[in-house]
Design goal:
The complex is a heterodimer of chains A (about 300) and B (about 270). With about 300 residues, chain A is mainly alpha-helical. Helices cover about 75% and strands about 0% of the residues of chain A. Chain A starts with a helix and ends with a helix. Chain B has two domains: about 1-50, no CATH class; about 55-265, MetI-like fold (Orthogonal Bundle), CATH 1.10.3720.10. Classes of the chains: A mainly alpha (about 300), B mainly alpha (about 270).
């Protein structure tokens, strides 16, 4: 009796809970969980264009799709490109986000809303549309990028046509597109740091740099881990930028994992192979997340 | 004003403008006649304003239909998923039932699975029931989403139980409680989630590229990507298409940015 009084509203209506959960959970189950499991199974078959017409031609092939990936130079290229993209763009994005957050959090600055809105604008805009804009910004003859560089007398670069520059060009565009999002999360993190820590540091005569190093950075650590994880997960899924700006070229130097998965699965209908690529991507993201959690834990102890 | 403050303003001002340069150029080029944007040095204001690019989009390329597809799909997905997610969020926040914690943790941890993993089977599934290249192909995977459920649950947790109990004593049914008490109190988070979902669906590219196979069904990003293939040398036309695509999201953002930004901050709060 006492127990049920304490549990209040919650105890006597669990059937209602199931009814409230049913629509969302069945949708997620049927259109998310089942496809995940199905994709896993498909990755062990030779599902291809013939199977699309007649499911009975599908054969179980064990790990051979995964073995094939291991020997596929194009897959290694896609893997290498994607890692290159994530490893450079991730930290650069986060550094830019943090800098922007510190600027906007400064007490000296007014009209914050206007500056915040302009920094944030690229985040909300459609990726495909801005990728098209940047394609023209990188135009070797008429593009703004080469114009700006010409002002400091740097000779024109064929950004998207040069195997060396195509990926950095995509990286720069991605930092521009995404830094505003993490900036907002960092601003929230900065506002949670107790003011008296800085006051105490001021009294002790700590320099601005030392305050940043010994107060701001450690206090922001949980935010930074969160931001690193979501940024990494997002960047491993690189697709639209190369699809629009370079089609994976030149010389496959910007081909990404997701783009390769898309090509194999939906252009050549090698769905078994494509599913294996998708699972490698999942595995990479999973391991990446684990590593970042572990790093955070060891930092704390 | 000290020197530090002035430098700070100059830096913030310059970087803000630099961030907006691509948009300024896009807008300006979209009002230029053919070939006028391909000049060196680039110009950020058209010599004469022409609307011919927009005319081409609407008259020759029937982008009005594409625009309506995007609008209709983003709107439907937003409304339906808001309904589904809010019910589930309410159940997770205020009810006790067997397996609740396990179920919730399972959902949360599966947020790490990239959606690309589901796309092949989802395509086969929808193809076998004839839904590829229909509006349903976009609506179905968007019916509910885990992040939305999580966000709403966080918010509803803060609504006091006493309100619900009082209504219960007055004889309200569970659905009435959801409808008359929870939903009105949760409006701020519902607005936030509505913006997220609307923008997410509007901007989505990979899945619509896979699931919509016919010009007349395309959403704006897919149509734009397709157009890019044929008009690589027409920056003016492509910029008009880009403006058309991003104007609605910029309006939504500017009007409702308070909710949007609060949502990002809430989503980043750890349990």
């Amino acid at each position: 009796m006492i127990k049920s009084a304490k549990n209040k509203f919650s105890t006597y209506s669990s059937s209602a809970a199931y009814i409230f959960l049913a629509p969302a959970l069945s949708a997620i189950f049927v259109f998310f969980f089942i496809p995940v499991i199905a994709a896993f199974i498909i990755s062990f078959t030779d599902f291809d264009i013939y199977a699309l017409g007649d499911f009975s031609t599908v054969r179980w092939v064990g790990f051979s799709n995964y073995f094939k990936l291991f020997d596929d130079p194009l897959f290694w290229q896609a893997l290498q490109n994607t890692f290159y993209f994530v490893i450079v763009t991730g930290p650069v994005s986060i550094a830019v986000s943090l800098t922007a957050a510190l600027l906007l959090n400064s007490k000296l600055v007014k009209f914050k809303a206007i500056f915040r809105a302009s920094y944030f604008m690229p985040v909300v805009t459609t990726l495909v549309a801005v990728a098209i804009v940047w394609r023209f910004i990188y135009h070797p003859k008429f593009g703004i990028m080469n114009y700006l560089l010409s002002l400091i007398s740097i000779s024109p670069i064929d950004w998207l046509g040069d195997p060396l520059w195509a990926m950095p060009a995509i990286m720069l565009m991605s930092v521009w597109k995404n830094f505003g999002y993490n900036m907002i999360i960092f601003i929230a993190g900065l506002q949670n740091i107790p003011e008296d820590l800085y006051e105490a540091a001021d009294i002790e005569g700590a320099s601005a740099w030392n305050q940043f190093r010994f107060i701001t950075l450690p206090m922001l650590a949980p935010t930074t881990v969160f931001v690193s994880i979501i940024t990494m997960i997002g960047y491993f899924q690189l697709f639209a930028e190369p699809y629009i700006m370079t089609q994976g070229g030149p010389l496959n130097k910007t081909l990404s994992i997701v783009q390769y998965m898309y090509q194999e699965g939906f252009r050549w209908w090698n769905m078994g192979y494509s599913a294996a690529i998708a699972f490698v991507l999942f595995f990479i993201i999973f391991v990446g997340t684990l590593i970042q959690f572990k790093l955070q834990k060891s930092d704390n102890t | 004003m000290n020197i530090k403050k002035i430098l700070l303003y100059i830096f913030i001002g310059l970087t803000s403008i630099l961030t907006l340069v691509p948009f300024i150029w896009m807008l300006s080029a979209s009002f230029m006649a053919d070939g006028k944007a391909s000049v060196f040095p680039p110009i950020f204001f058209p010599d004469e304003f022409v609307f011919s690019q927009y005319e081409t989009l609407f008259v020759r390329l029937s982008m009005a239909r594409t625009f309506l597809n995007s609008l209709l799909l983003s709107f439907s997905v937003t409304v339906i998923s808001l309904f589904f997610n809010s019910m589930a969020g309410f159940a997770f926040a205020k009810y006790r039932f067997i397996g609740k914690k396990k179920l919730f943790n399972l959902l949360l941890s599966s947020m790490i699975i990239p959606s690309q993993v589901t796309m092949l089977p989802l395509f086969l599934m929808l193809k076998s029931i004839g839904l590829i290249n229909t509006y349903m192909a976009i609506i179905i995977p968007g019916l509910a989403n885990i992040f939305g459920i999580f966000l709403i649950r966080q918010y509803i947790l803060a609504i006091p139980d006493s309100l619900i109990e009082a209504a219960k004593i007055d004889g309200a049914t569970d659905f009435q409680i959801y409808r008359k008490i929870i939903l009105p109190l949760a409006i701020p988070i519902l607005v936030t989630l509505a913006i997220f979902t609307f923008l997410g669906t509007w901007n989505d590219f990979l899945w619509p590229l896979i699931a919509l196979t016919d010009d007349s069904m395309y959403t704006l990003p897919v149509a734009l990507a397709n157009l890019m293939g044929e008009h690589t040398k027409d920056p003016e036309l492509m910029m008009a298409g880009s403006v058309l695509t991003i104007i609605p999201v910029i309006i939504v953002f500017l009007v409702l940015q308070k909710y949007y930004i609060k949502g990002i901050m809430m989503g980043s709060v750890k349990e």
